[in-house]
Amino acid sequence: MSSAGTHPAAAVEPVVAQVLTEAGVPSAESAFPKPLTDEVVQAADIVITMGCGDACPVVAGRRYLDRPVADPEGAPIAVVRAMRDAIDAHITELLDSLPSAA
Description:
By secondary structure, the protein is mainly α. The protein has helices at 14-22, 38-42, 77-97, and strands at residues 46-49, 63-66.
Protein backbone atom coordinates (compact mmCIF):
# COMPACT_ATOMS: atom_id res chain seq x y z
CA MET A 1 0.00 0.00 0.00
CA SER A 2 1.22 3.49 -0.73
CA SER A 3 -0.10 7.00 -0.46
CA ALA A 4 0.18 10.00 -2.78
CA GLY A 5 -1.59 13.24 -3.59
CA THR A 6 -2.28 15.44 -6.59
CA HIS A 7 -0.90 18.53 -4.84
CA PRO A 8 1.25 17.18 -2.00
CA ALA A 9 2.26 19.56 0.75
CA ALA A 10 5.86 20.04 1.81
CA ALA A 11 5.28 17.94 4.94
CA VAL A 12 2.64 15.78 6.59
CA GLU A 13 0.42 17.81 8.91
CA PRO A 14 1.69 17.16 12.47
CA VAL A 15 -1.82 16.32 13.72
CA VAL A 16 -2.19 13.76 10.91
CA ALA A 17 1.13 12.14 11.86
CA GLN A 18 -0.02 12.11 15.50
CA VAL A 19 -3.35 10.38 14.85
CA LEU A 20 -1.69 7.83 12.56
CA THR A 21 0.93 7.10 15.22
CA GLU A 22 -1.88 6.69 17.78
CA ALA A 23 -3.39 4.05 15.49
CA GLY A 24 -0.09 2.19 15.29
CA VAL A 25 0.76 3.15 11.72
CA PRO A 26 4.46 2.44 11.33
CA SER A 27 6.64 5.33 10.19
CA ALA A 28 3.79 7.87 10.44
CA GLU A 29 6.13 10.49 11.88
CA SER A 30 8.72 9.97 9.14
CA ALA A 31 6.18 9.89 6.28
CA PHE A 32 6.34 12.54 3.60
CA PRO A 33 3.87 13.70 0.94
CA LYS A 34 4.42 12.20 -2.52
CA PRO A 35 2.95 13.18 -5.88
CA LEU A 36 0.28 11.00 -7.47
CA THR A 37 1.89 10.20 -10.80
CA ASP A 38 0.91 7.98 -13.72
CA GLU A 39 3.63 5.55 -12.59
CA VAL A 40 2.13 5.27 -9.10
CA VAL A 41 -1.31 4.55 -10.57
CA GLN A 42 0.09 2.03 -13.07
CA ALA A 43 1.66 0.09 -10.20
CA ALA A 44 -1.68 -0.18 -8.37
CA ASP A 45 -4.50 -2.67 -8.76
CA ILE A 46 -6.98 -0.48 -6.88
CA VAL A 47 -6.74 3.32 -6.71
CA ILE A 48 -8.62 4.98 -3.88
CA THR A 49 -9.08 8.67 -4.54
CA MET A 50 -10.20 11.17 -1.95
CA GLY A 51 -12.06 13.71 -4.02
CA CYS A 52 -9.38 14.74 -6.51
CA GLY A 53 -11.74 14.56 -9.51
CA ASP A 54 -10.10 15.36 -12.84
CA ALA A 55 -6.73 16.02 -11.18
CA CYS A 56 -6.17 12.28 -10.61
CA PRO A 57 -4.35 10.30 -13.29
CA VAL A 58 -6.55 7.65 -14.90
CA VAL A 59 -5.06 4.42 -16.19
CA ALA A 60 -7.20 1.90 -18.04
CA GLY A 61 -7.68 -1.40 -16.28
CA ARG A 62 -7.41 -0.03 -12.75
CA ARG A 63 -10.26 -0.16 -10.27
CA TYR A 64 -11.08 3.28 -8.89
CA LEU A 65 -12.94 4.06 -5.68
CA ASP A 66 -13.59 7.65 -4.67
CA ARG A 67 -13.90 8.45 -0.97
CA PRO A 68 -13.92 12.26 -0.66
CA VAL A 69 -12.25 13.48 2.52
CA ALA A 70 -11.98 17.03 3.81
CA ASP A 71 -8.53 18.60 4.04
CA PRO A 72 -7.21 17.98 7.56
CA GLU A 73 -5.08 21.14 7.53
CA GLY A 74 -5.97 23.18 10.59
CA ALA A 75 -8.69 20.76 11.72
CA PRO A 76 -9.02 19.92 15.42
CA ILE A 77 -7.50 16.60 16.44
CA ALA A 78 -10.95 15.08 17.15
CA VAL A 79 -11.99 15.80 13.56
CA VAL A 80 -8.76 14.30 12.19
CA ARG A 81 -9.28 11.20 14.35
CA ALA A 82 -12.80 10.85 12.92
CA MET A 83 -11.38 11.19 9.40
CA ARG A 84 -8.77 8.51 10.15
CA ASP A 85 -11.44 6.18 11.52
CA ALA A 86 -13.70 6.70 8.48
CA ILE A 87 -10.81 5.95 6.12
CA ASP A 88 -9.93 2.86 8.16
CA ALA A 89 -13.55 1.65 7.95
CA HIS A 90 -13.57 2.10 4.16
CA ILE A 91 -10.27 0.22 3.79
CA THR A 92 -11.45 -2.59 6.07
CA GLU A 93 -14.66 -2.89 4.02
CA LEU A 94 -12.63 -3.02 0.80
CA LEU A 95 -10.24 -5.65 2.15
CA ASP A 96 -13.17 -7.77 3.36
CA SER A 97 -14.68 -7.62 -0.15
CA LEU A 98 -11.55 -8.89 -1.92
CA PRO A 99 -11.17 -12.57 -2.75
CA SER A 100 -9.03 -14.54 -0.32
CA ALA A 101 -5.44 -15.19 -1.42
CA ALA A 102 -5.48 -18.58 0.29
